[in-house]
Amino acid sequence: MVTLTQTINSLTLKTPIILASGTVTPEIKKYTSLSKVGALTTKSITFNPKKGNPPPRTVEVIGGMLNSIGMENPGVAKFVEEELPNWLSLNLPIIVSVGGKEIEEYLKVVEKLNSTPISAYELNVSCPNVKGREISKSPKELEKLVKEVKKITTKPVIVKLSPNVSDIQEIGSAAVNAEVDGFCLINTVYGMKVNVEEKKPALGNITGGLSGPCIKPIALYYVYKLRQITSLPIIGGGGIMTYHDALEFFMVGADCISIGTANFINPNTGNEIIEGIISYCNTHNITNINEIVGIIRED
Asked: Residue 184: pLDDT above 70?
């Protein structure tokens, strides 16, 4: 038997597999078993309803996809009333992704959700598809946001970090100073595609966020660099398609992994990855997944 359990403060996950924000809905249960999944993360929820960006919103590229959804959602009140019950019916830990333009908006969303039985918050401070500033680029603002959220909730607070920064360690240290409970990284990478026949951008928003296998080396690098400055839980993700990909993330320092784009291709990816990890561990006489977490480190 291989021990796969991981914890993020008070949140206990039976496996280190988390299905990423914006890539699944409760409808996934119609297409695959969720028995091996540790948790699911909802799409990003803002205080007021948000329409999102103009179409086209997604486009395939070599090795991945671009999206510019723009955080479309019904607002937190409608989410709690109409959508959250379906998430909770899955009987898995539900992490709610929280979005906002200003710190005050994040706080209002958290306050609305605090009385619900969700398991944790993922602060989306790094969406590249929403116009305006990204809090993830300012250590000072990120530290302030995390401190303010921690004041009003006892649920674990996870910060989703962006690769579109100059120093991931500086940003991460700011969240550590604010006593964040864990990290999720990376969010998508800036990108765009041009329709040469129509001589215009392929996305309605012109630019978008790049995800898929093509960003895995970038994601591994940022997880590796962040692990050097903190022992807090890290959810690593970016281009994970197979258990080999997942093992790479564990070895550079991720405690859990987040599966995103792969869900669009194969909703059973999470289960297949867990089966592969167990097989690998049995072959290599590994009894606990933590035996390989962070084994690749700076001297």
From this structure: yes
Instruction: Look at the block and give the residue holding tokens 């303010």.
Output: 148
Domain count, the chain: 1
Distance CA 204, CA 187 (A): 20
Give dist(CA 24, CA 27) in Å, integer: 8
Alpha helix positions (H), the chain? 76-78, 84-88, 103-113, 139-152, 168-177, 216-227, 243-252, 262-265, 269-283
Cβ atoms of 124 and 160 within 8 Å: the answer is: yes
**Is residue 111, in this structure, part of any structural domain at all?**
yes
- What CATH code is carried by the domain that includes residue 241? 3.20.20.70
Q: Is 127 a catalytic residue?
A: yes
And the tokens for 17?
């597999």
pLDDT tens for each residue of 3-62: 999 999 999 999 999 999 999 999 999 999 999 999 999 999 999 999 999 999 999 999
A 10 A CB-CB count for 228 gives 13
Quick check: is 203 in a domain? Answer: no
95 part of a folded domain: yes
Q: Are 246 and 277 in contact (CB under 8 A)?
A: yes
| Residue 207: inside a domain | no
| Domain assignment of residue 181, given as a range | 6-52+71-190+213-291
Q: What is the pLDDT of residue 134?
A: 73
State in Å, rounded, how far the first CA of the chain is from the last one. 32
Residue where the block lists tokens 């924000």: 21
pTM: 0.97
